[in-house]
Amino acid sequence: MADMLNIALPKGRLGDKVYDMFERAGFECPSIKEKNRKLIFENEEAGIRYFWGKPSDVAIYVERGAADIGVAGKDILVEYEPDVYELADLEVGKCRMCVAGPLDYEDDPDRTLRVATKFVKTAIDYYSSRGRDIDIIKLNGSIELAPILGLSDVIVDIVETGTTLKENKLEIKREIYPISARLIANKSGFKFKNEAIEKLLVKIAELKETE
Ligand code: PRP
């Protein structure tokens, strides 16, 4: 149904947490709690439909209007700059974008720095603002392997608890920016489904105040 509010959530731990927040805000969809591999859940009566998307894809669904609203990490918004409205900081999924490297690594400014990352734009922008030449090595996961295997000097990656770095004898060298989950909206969806979206925004603001 076109007038349903379509909500894209990132599947995984963060998405579960955000769904609980939306449920407490009155946007419940009980079938989502069923243990199955379904990706779409509806509460027809309430006019709400949820989808579970890959976290890095949620902003694409929202930008293109397949979802009216969604939840994406600030890292994704900085890296891909989707043409969406950023409506609220949900203050969950907190972590940091960092430069990390081996404990004994010291930067030699005369050499091109080899940087492994999933976040190519973030890394290029960060180092170009510092006037540093880099060689980007784009990886898709387990970025921490790169400096251990000598594939790169440093990595630009997300650090949450710091455990992955610690267990691989790496450390934070620089913090680039803090990350948290953001509520985003499709630009025309925001206009046409404004009443429901504003209601969600108000409820979320109330929830944040009481927590
Ligand atoms: C992310 C990130 C780090 C890790 C940080 O990886 O890329 O590897 O989590 O978390 P920590 O500081 O709590 O250890 P993710 O688990 O998403 O998988 P990936 O390696 O495939 O990117």
Which structural class matches the secondary elements? alpha/beta
Percent of residues in helices? 25-40%
Q: What's the number of helices?
A: 8
Q: What characterizes the major β-sheet?
A: 6 strands, mixed
Q: What is the N-to-C succession of helices and strands? A: EHEEHEHEEEHEHEHEEHH
Distance, first to last CA = 34 Å
Tally of strands: 11
Strand order of the largest sheet: 2-3-1-4-11-5
Strand content: 25-35%
Which spans have pLDDT < 50 for at least 5 consecutive residues?
A: none
How confident is the prediction overall: mean pLDDT? 95
Radius of gyration: 19 Å
Bound ligands? 1-O-pyrophosphono-5-O-phosphono-alpha-D-ribofuranose
Shape type: elongated
Explained architecture:
The structure is a single chain. This protein has 211 residues and is an alpha/beta fold. 32% of the residues lie in helices and 31% in strands. It has a 6-stranded mixed β-sheet. Strands 8-7-9-6-10 form a 5-stranded mixed β-sheet. Helix 4 (120-129) links the parallel strand 7 and strand 8 (134-138). The protein is elongated and about 65 Å long. The relative contact order is 0.21. The mean pLDDT is 95.
